[in-house]
Amino acid sequence: MPAPKRILVIDDADDVRILVERQLERLGYAADGAADGVAGLEAIARSRPDLVLCDLRMPRLDGLGVLSELRDKYPQLPVVVMSGEGLLQDAVSALRLGAWDYLSKPIAGMAVLQHAVGKALEKAELLAENQRQRDKLEVLYRELADDQDAGRRLQLSLLPEDGMKVGSFTLTRELLPSSFLSGDFCSTFSLPDGRWGFYLADVAGHGVPSALVTVMLRTVVERWVLEGRDASFFAPSTFLKALNHELLRQRHEKHVALFYGLVDESRSVLACGNAGCFPWPILQQGGNTFAMELPGMPLGLMDTASYDERTYPLLPDTKFVACTDGVFDVMDGGSVEEKSRRIAQAAGSSATATELVQVLGLTQHRARPDDVAVLMLTRGDAHALRTS
Amino acid sequence: MPAPKRILVIDDADDVRILVERQLERLGYAADGAADGVAGLEAIARSRPDLVLCDLRMPRLDGLGVLSELRDKYPQLPVVVMSGEGLLQDAVSALRLGAWDYLSKPIAGMAVLQHAVGKALEKAELLAENQRQRDKLEVLYRELADDQDAGRRLQLSLLPEDGMKVGSFTLTRELLPSSFLSGDFCSTFSLPDGRWGFYLADVAGHGVPSALVTVMLRTVVERWVLEGRDASFFAPSTFLKALNHELLRQRHEKHVALFYGLVDESRSVLACGNAGCFPWPILQQGGNTFAMELPGMPLGLMDTASYDERTYPLLPDTKFVACTDGVFDVMDGGSVEEKSRRIAQAAGSSATATELVQVLGLTQHRARPDDVAVLMLTRGDAHALRTS
């Protein structure tokens, strides 16, 4: 059985106060008394009753004074005021000051007392329950958000370091998840023969399940490098085909758009393959900027998919920029063609991935409809390219 | 500039109603009028005003009737009542019925009107803002929970199928995450020479970051199998050492407790290694039950860690049971020794991992302080073992 609700009766008329206390006790409540407003506030601070029954006209501090005080200090505490008949203006003032209900003295029987007190306690319980639900929801949300944030930090730690050197290139990247975790990511690796590879991937969906798949994908590629696959394995057409089979084998039914490049600096050649990554990556070198239009099917959809390979000669001043298709959803206004043009322009004028996402206004959206990842590789004088 | 707040004035006295409407308009509100309670309710349903100013004594439906109706249908709509002086009992009734405030007619000037209306609108705005915050929090929580639940399903899909055959054994398992995603998991693999391995792992922490590490770990082991490492690599001491180096290389600073076993059915031998997994796994065969006491350091802590290997002959009737240390936190009452005894007993009497977690009462806790994973491998007549 729950403990009885505790009610404080504040009234300077001893006989009335004691009578009401008795009646409340007979109704199953635990009653206590105070002889004026000052004593009442002290008793409330001391014992935190569940409800206060308060006379209005009292010496030292009257009922309206008690109400003002309680409204600031204990806004949730239900107060029912009692006043002599004919003092209706008092009742109006009290109700406007936040009294929960009003009883005329002498109280017209136990039923009236029971009704007023019971109703106020019920409403207070309802409000308290609402508050508990809200607090609980906040705690639950905070737990999940903290958990996801820790996951996000781990995911970010798996990205190549922003500004790192790969061969003679500088790599910069940005990852803007739609929530905490991202289905987009990028990575790079070096082969023993001096060649190095990079890829930008967009796992279907977003959030935790897609992030789990990015980790699987990244680990698989890393293992391929570590296990010392022979050089031909990393040629784009072979590599993408193997990754396609791997994703189908994993059976999680998340397909992946992925752009892959393999750089052979000794021969100044970039070999590329594209598994459905769009917008087309931008290559800027020797004063020319062009989109690397390489159609191809996303990974993990069809066992028979095959991938074309294209090679580009690398000039001393080179900039490569790729981003995932979330960029179209996050950019403001315009058709895909217009946005593609703006991306190409911004790619040309930006020195780093961070600058690019700022120029495109991607960071100003706090709620992004999709993840966006940007990978930029620069060699030579990126700044000269930028201002030319 | 925001649109002006819309106020509906309900009063059967045309002159009063029109005067109040004019005053409200001069105060910057958009005012509309209705000549009695019925017309007022219709206007409210039609135009959803921001506030209602309502006379009390009216033909057809009076102010108290309007209040009762509104309290049910639009509990958030602020209503300020107006009543002739000397009709204080009406005011008391109205306030008790949920009126937000009370004005005496004739209204004592624009300032009084402005004060009452402004205060009520302000409070309504506050309540609405609270509600919006609560709704937003619920949406945010729901999004994260759905996201994590999708992640959980993906993680579960990576576990070995419950009840699957591995060699001549039946594998059953349970994964009870503390939240949605788990840092505990188990897996199994088969080697081309007919041997097969299994492991139970507990990544430090829980939730999303630990789940990401389980996926990395699982993918690494899978790749080792797929890349066709030679047979000696999968011997427990070699395997655990390699896994230790791999975790240190990954630099995510999450250590892992892991029990690993390699079964050679042609020679009827189980070879085991333990990297800090506790409670000790239970082996039950030939009428004997014993704890496999194999101390060892968790993976990912020290580069120099090495791991002992122990072999057990396998009898036709064999049951192997391992669980992660979350079991101690989730089980009720008793010391670790007592709980270990109860786990060993329950392991002996349970035919599946699911039965074991039920016997130990692990599923009755809705909020678990830690993840728990259980892996059970049985061969021969598990039921006979169970009832013996």
From TrEMBL, chains A, B:
Ranges annotated as spanning the membrane: none
One Pfam match: SpoIIE
Keyword Metal-binding carried by entry: no
Chain ranges of the Response regulatory domain: 6-120
Modified residue annotations for 4-aspartylphosphate: 55
Entry keyword set: Hydrolase, Phosphoprotein
A biological process term (GO) from this entry: phosphorelay signal transduction system
UniProt xrefs under SUPFAM superfamilies: CheY-like, PP2C-like
InterPro entries in the cross-refs: Bact_Sigma-Reg, CheY-like_superfamily, PPM-type-like_dom_sf, PPM-type_phosphatase-like_dom, Sig_transdc_resp-reg_receiver
Single annotated GO MF: phosphatase activity
Record protein name field: Fused response regulator/phosphatase
Lineage of the species this protein comes from: Bacteria, Pseudomonadati, Myxococcota, Myxococcia, Myxococcales
